[in-house]
Here is the input.
Amino acid sequence: MAEVTQLIHHYLRHNKRFPHVLCPGCGHGIVLGSLVRSVHQLGLTKDEVVLVAGIGCSGRIAVYVDFNTVHTTHGRALTFATGIKMANPRLKVIAVMGDGDALSIGGNHFLHAARRNIGVTALILNNNIYGMTGGQSSSTTAENCYSTTSPYGQQEQSFDIVELAKAAGAPYVARSTVLHVKLLDRIITTALERPGFNLVEVLTPCHTQFGRKNKFKTTVDMYKWYKKNAIPLDSLSKLPQEEQQQRTPIGIFVEENRPSLEERYAAITCRLEEASK
Amino acid sequence: MPTKVKKNHRKEERSLFALGNEAVVEGALLAGCSFFAGYPITPSTEIAEIMAERLPKRPDGVFIQMEDEIASLGAVIGASLAGRKSMTATSGPGFSLMQEHIGYASMTEVPLVIVNVMRGGPSTGLPTSPAQGDVQQARWGTHGDHPIIVLSASDVQECLDMTVRAFNLSEKYRSPVILLLDEITAHTREKIQIPNRETYEIFSRIKPSMPPEWFVPYEESMRGVPPMPALGEGYRFHVTGLTHDVNGYPTSRPEEVEKLMQRLFRKIDQFFYDIQIVEETACEDAEVVVIAYGCVARSAHLAVLQARELGVRAGLLKLKTLFPFPRPAVERLIRQCRTVIVPEMNMGQMSREVKRVNNGLSSVRTLNRIDGQIITPAEILKVLQKA
Ligand SMILES: Cc1ncc(C[n+]2csc(CCOP(=O)(O)OP(=O)(O)O)c2C)c(N)n1
Ligand code: SF4
Here is the structure.
């Protein structure tokens, strides 16, 4: 316990006015904890980490940690992150986004960041809803789920973030829930160590907005459902076909090595410098 | 494609037969710009193309083509926060897309330069024709009440000079600066002088000198402009577009909100005379003065000289700073003159400002064209003779 407290004191901002804005039971705090542990484990200094966040409940977590933190505009965190990384490739740039943030308003930037393979670790905190604005449907709200803007059930098909990231060319794609903390710590740590665009999707419950609308009586019910629903990727194929479709696989989906944009850019500038000599 | 550079006998000083857009790039590089992010749009495209060729050849120079203009300005803000002098260039529709981020840069006090080569609008309008329709968008395009610096240029040499100015002002006052050009100025080719670096005073943002523990990122001071460290230099702080307290943390306490907003305005107001740049021609004894900017100012210049030959006591006030509106210069001439004439290639976006200052003192005439054609010296002369 003492160790945990020390860790908290090292990474949280003392002069920030607590309490934080997240609801009791929100999964976002668990992701922040995991991120801090990963940074700590890798021995990164607080000065070299830049946490760029979008707008939404997930975006608010940046204010509490003592890194270089930039709370940007809704959907555009990856564009700021791209500028920061290209301007100073030595920085460890992490973008924290909500599902609405990253894939609805920011969908285009997401695809292009993955395609470019810019050296940014992207964390998408997917709660399948717009939390901050009061529970409207997002592009990951599942069909027939309820939200304040789909009072008769969501009619649109939802995005699968992992599939999208794969298709766009991200060299590292992983998913966990906030209940699988060991896995979460592991994939965030790996993502931070790797060059290029690394995507980590985290399934995180929002009882206040999603749970309430979709017949989860308590926050605990919701956590139980997340636990039941998620299945490690390698166990998936052991299930009967219909059941496979109802479960969400977690684990590492893609792990390839490809030079990042900033590395390729540096190679060009080197070549030009040689040529001018 | 950039034109071949001809070496002049004076060391480092070069002359160049350049496009307005090309001169912008020269000015930016002279001012120390090392980061450009953009998305192609006529008539600003050459700026991105020449940057793409030039920047990778410079130590630390970064060029990146982003997926749209929102992304471009996002990347520019990120790069500026990471310590680079950064810019983007665009035209009408792209400028509209940038508006949310212009507000973000004002609120977070991130220095950067946006060049908007205006084209006819609204909408995709007249992509290759000149216009001056974005004057009020540059002033008020983003939401919320905020100060802004908007400059313009009317010939190729000025494109270079004003780009250097734009960087200097943005760095000095930690503010986004918008350089408004028109298609004619951007696509005119003229001989210009590229002076050596020493000719210009080049300003870079002031960095904090205190130890990081003492650093208060948005502290009140006499100057009103807080020092700005780069990300990763040891001064960790929070940057947010939300209204924030002196530590950078979100606040909605009225006294803290008021303080921040007042400081944002004050830092521009206080240095008004450093920011305001106008140029007068034959104004000493003028009875009729033309107030113009951009390519129209060149037509007006000739018209004024011709009018003088015809015995009309005409003068020209060329605005190089559009906002904050150079009120003192305009007001003085209004008091002195019988009539002021404001020709512009829109329905009267700058004459609104002149009329606001005029407040019934003299007569304000407008001359507007919105057909994608330049206002000629002859047209202005005609109005001058009748005034
Ligand atoms: C341009 C713009 N449009 C809309 C909003 C309003 N808005 C704020 S947060 C948000 C959605 C947040 O949802 P999500 O990204 O899923 O994050 P969560 O709050 O669920 O963590 C929206 C639509 C905004 N801030 N800016
Ligand atoms: S609304 Fe949902 S996402 Fe937002 S803090 Fe509350 S539980 Fe978390």
Remarks:
- The mean pLDDT of chain A is 96.
- Chain A is about 45% helix and 20% strand.
- The interface with chain B takes residues 13, 15-17, 46-48, 50, 52, 62-63, 66-73, 76, 79-88, 90-91, 108-109, 111-112, 265, 268-269, 272-273, 276 of chain A (CB under 8 Å).
